[in-house]
Specification:
about 575 residues, alpha/beta, Sulfate adenylyltransferase, Rossmann fold, seven-stranded mixed β-sheet, 20 strands, about 40% helix
């Protein structure tokens, strides 16, 4: 009997241990690039074979083929560009033919890359072709334009060592470790369930059915690299998965963690996930409704159709080498006290369902989550991670022109919140932060962005640890405010207050004489005069302080905080 293809080892990019030691000595003198969080995830899957057949970061020819045709230059199917994006300053030092050391954020050398290509990509074209729209409401497009470096480097990689993970080590398996395990257990068919959310009873039922239909063993393979901003953190999710694992038959089910940086790329992402799972020894893959969808676009519509991912996957199924298993939308039928596929239910029965939004509301407000929906063990973990909102930390982020009244209202709000008590309150005022955190920075766009991100970082730590942060910078740029929101919402609520006092009124007040100096050209790049202020489109609250006193303005913010459930006014 021939060996099953999902049991055979696949090529890795690691060099032999003796070569790694020698290469590490030489690499100490090479130009070094400190990998970003996304690049670390990509490099790990390049080195361990998870991204096979890739031999390194894409060359320009491979990149062009992937972006335009979903194919590498040699014609093989690959839907997602995997690039080493770097800063202009670093790119200026590197020419094709150079070897560079790739380091983790602690400075440990993980790999050596031989740079063969260097180019400046057309990021708008990449966004259109890969993600379907050049729309920054898509997290990957926003990342492309506002986080990724402007220059791409391509070339093969020699792996020296895998990144170190200190969490859930027994659950982290390379593709070849899984293949060896499947061979040892005799698992000829393996159906994979991909998830970036906690598992509830409906997921359990659909995975049972998928494994039964495919007559396969089941691997729950959640993503623990980068997912969508706002997702439940992977520590909480893995504790939830481990709590649910007891509900599955031990002999036919396994749980393994995938350190993938998702792009939320819908149809292309589904094909990509299929190829990655083939490398990890899967034979079947469950593709869900709106698989890896990023939510709504700037016009408030879904980026992708609900079954676009399944259609593209099915079209390339033979090349992917993994069979598609339809994700059944499971709902609870009250009369029969069980989950059933929504499209198989007759009229006249009572169907119960709780959406993700409704689940978050119940967690936020401390309401009951019924046992028919989820397992008590999972709910317990989620409640530990998401206490009721009135017990969570949060950030109030004032933004507006100089002289709009931000700092004054922020100070009044701080006093009112301290009077209420219950949580520590910290005011991160623009001038104070500049003195203590950012004294070396100037007022160029780049330096102002760095300053706002520092404020955001400090606020996110305060928020994560249950405190209240009040920030009052000008923060004129939409992209920077969005980056700060994403940072903070990982640990609590973010309340944006646009102090929308008109420019004429701000200039009339001009307590510091800054507008006068800006009008005379003595201050360059002054917001509202020689530099733009990008108004927030959907702040939680908009205030115009022209005709209201400070006490009234601060009280409006308190009322908004109460409405959001973050405080309880007595």
């Amino acid at each position: 009997m021939t060996e099953n293809s999902n049991h055979l080892p696949i090529p890795e990019l690691f060099v032999a241990p003796q070569s790694a030691a020698a290469l590490k000595d030489v690499a100490g003198d090479m130009p070094s690039w400190d990998l970003t969080e996304r690049q670390l995830c990509d490099l790990e899957l390049l080195m361990n074979g998870g991204f096979s057949p890739l031999k390194g970061f894409l060359t320009q020819a491979d990149y062009d083929g992937v972006v335009n045709e979903m194919r590498l230059a040699d014609g093989r199917l690959w839907p997602m560009p995997i690039n080493l994006d770097v800063s202009q300053a670093f790119a200026d030092r590197i020419e094709p033919g150079t070897d560079i050391a790739l380091r983790d954020q602690e400075g440990v050398i993980l790999a050596v890359m031989s740079v063969t290509d260097k180019w400046v990509p057309n990021k708008s074209h990449e966004a259109e072709k890969v993600f379907g729209a050049d729309d920054v409401a898509h997290p990957a497009v926003n990342y492309l334009h506002h986080t990724a470096g402007p220059v791409y480097l391509g070339g093969p990689v020699k792996g020296l060592q895998a990144p170190t993970h200190y969490d859930f080590r027994a659950r982290r398996n390379s593709p070849n470790e899984l293949r060896a395990m499947f061979k040892k257990l005799g698992w000829r068919k393996v159906v994979v369930f991909q998830t970036r959310n906690p598992l509830h009873r409906a997921h359990q039922e659909l995975t049972f059915r998928a494994a039964r239909e495919a007559q396969a063993n089941l691997m729950i393979h959640p993503v623990v690299g980068m997912t969508k901003p706002g997702d439940v953190d992977h520590f909480t999710r893995v504790r939830c998965y481990e709590a649910v694992l007891d509900k599955y038959p031990q002999a036919t089910t396994t749980l393994s963690l995938l350190n993938l940086a998702m792009r939320m790329g819908g149809p292309r992402e589904a094909v990509w996930h299929g190829l990655i799972r083939r490398n990890h020894g899967a034979t079947h893959f469950i593709v869900g409704r709106d698989h890896a969808g990023p939510g709504k676009n700037s016009a408030g519509e879904d980026f992708y159709g609900p079954y676009d991912a399944q259609e593209l996957f099915r079209k390339h199924e033979d090349e992917i080498g993994v069979k598609l298993v339809d994700f059944k939308h499971m709902v609870y039928v009250q009369e029969r006290a069980q989950y059933e596929p929504a499209d198989e239910i007759e009229d006249g029965v009572t169907v119960l369902n709780i959406s993700g939004t409704e689940l978050r509301r119940r967690l936020r407000e401390g309401l009951e989550i019924p046992e028919w929906f989820s397992f008590p063990e999972v709910v317990r973990e989620l409640r530990r991670n998401s206490p009721p909102r009135a017990q969570q930390g949060f950030t109030v982020f004032f933004t507006g022109l100089s002289g709009s009244g931000k700092s004054t209202v922020a100070n009044a709000l701080m006093v009112k919140l301290m009077e209420m008590g219950g949580r520590p309150v910290t005011l991160l005022d623009g001038d104070v932060v500049r003195k203590h955190l950012s004294s070396e920075l100037g007022f160029s766009k780049e330096h102002r962005d760095i300053n706002i991100k520092r404020i955001g970082y400090v606020a996110s730590e305060i928020t994560k640890n249950g405190g209240i942060a009040i920030c009052a910078p000008i923060a004129p740029y939409t992209a920077t405010r969005r980056a700060v929101r994403e940072m903070i919402e990982a640990g609590g609520a973010f309340v944006e207050v646009h102090v929308a006092t008109p420019l004429e009124e701000c200039e009339r007040r001009d307590r510091k004489g800054l507008y006068k100096l800006a009008r005379e050209g003595k201050i360059k790049e002054f917001t509202g005069i020689s530099d733009p202020y990008e108004e927030p489109q959907a702040p939680e609250l908009r205030l115009d302080t022209t005709n209201i006193d400070v006490d009234n303005a601060a009280h409006q913010v308190l009322l908004k905080l109460e409405q959001l459930g973050l405080i309880g006014l007595k």
